[in-house]
Write a structure and sequence with these properties.
Layout: H1 4-22, H2 28-33, E1 39-46, E2 50-51, H3 55-65, E3 70-73, E4 80-81, E5 86-93, H4 94-125, E6 131-133, H5 143-152, E7 166-168, H6 170-176, H7 179-189, E8 196-200, H8 203-212, E9 216-220, H9 224-234, E10 239-243, E11 261-263, H10 266-269, E12 276-283
Parallel strand pairs: 6-11, 7-8, 8-9, 9-10, 10-11
Antiparallel strand pairs: 1-5, 1-12, 2-4, 3-5
Length: 284
């Protein structure tokens, strides 16, 4: 998301939808106090310690409203910023600065909150072999932004969408009739470049998934003791992932289990926003 092509192809249409949601016909407040063009400046100020993510998206909001806007950036994505830090000075048409403020901040606050929360969990996993993953439990039309923020925070992305890979969950297995049948059907249907991941809930399912030839076995809502036994059974024949209500508060329970990956929906659905403001708007 750091290049202009990615922004134009994947992001501009989403930002425009967000702006259209906020400005259905006009910005009445801004048009009342600023009926004509006036060049102005406003400061982007951090009001909470954390990891910043989404500055390029923040800037893009204003660029779509004012092609003359300019940015004096004092921070970049991935930086740890502190309460009171000046992160950027934005110069442009005051009407665009006022109308785009909330949409730009919504993206930046949300993405920075996710990056900050993700980073706090990544630090808990330091020194181990387990990689932190996100999930598809994202806000509709925000996935590209939220998954990018996870990466800025030091986490890794699971599949981006349903076209990315095969994941056979409980209902897929139920539809197929068994793990063995589901894996067989997936191998026959999917391209050879796609790995096949199977969600299991008990040790019998672990054994069947291994014997069926699953590439990745997801240990869903298992106790640490069950996961250790599952890893013993798998014995390196598949990669392992654990999931199921994993949060910052309980992730320590799996630190010594030895899974390859841990996925957490909380990274995107429960991270609080980071407090960031646009202040001190004035004409120049």
């Amino acid at each position: 998301m750091n290049d202009s092509i990615t922004l134009k192809v994947n992001v501009d249409k989403l930002i425009m939808q967000a702006l259209e949601e906020d400005i259905t016909s006009e910005d009445i407040s801004t048009n009342a106090v600023m009926p004509e063009y006036q060049k102005g400046q406003v400061e982007l100020i951090c009001k909470q310690d954390g990891i910043v993510a989404g500055l390029n998206v923040f800037c893009r909001v204003f660029e779509l409203l004012d092609d003359t806007v300019a940015f004096d950036m004092r921070a970049k994505d991935g930086d740890f910023v502190k309460n009171g830090d000046l992160m950027a000075v934005v110069t442009g048409d005051i009407r665009a600065l006022l109308s785009g403020e909330r949409t730009a901040l919504n993206y930046l606050q949300r993405m920075s909150g996710i990056a900050t929360y993700t980073n706090s969990i990544v630090k808990l996993l330091e020194g181990g072999k387990t990689t932190l993953l996100d999930t598809r439990k994202t806000t509709p039309n925000m996935r590209i932004f939220e998954k990018y923020a996870v990466k800025v925070g030091g986490g890794s992305n699971h599949r981006f969408n349903l076209s990315d890979g095969v994941m056979l969950k409980d209902n897929h297995i139920g539809a197929a009739g068994s793990i063995t049948k589901a894996v067989q059907m997936a191998k026959e249907y999917a391209s050879f470049v796609h790995k096949i991941e199977v969600e299991v809930e008990n040790l019998d399912m672990v054994k069947e998934a291994v014997e069926a030839g699953a590439d990745i076995i997801m240990l869903d809502n298992m106790s640490p003791e069950q996961m250790k036994e599952a890893i013993r059974i798998i014995d390196g024949r598949a990669q392992t992932e654990c999931s199921g209500n994993v949060t910052k508060e309980n992730i320590q329970n799996i630190l010594d289990v030895g899974v390859d990956y841990v996925s957490s929906g909380a990274l995107t659905h429960s991270a609080p926003i980071m407090d960031i403001s646009l202040k001190n708007l004035h004409a120049v």
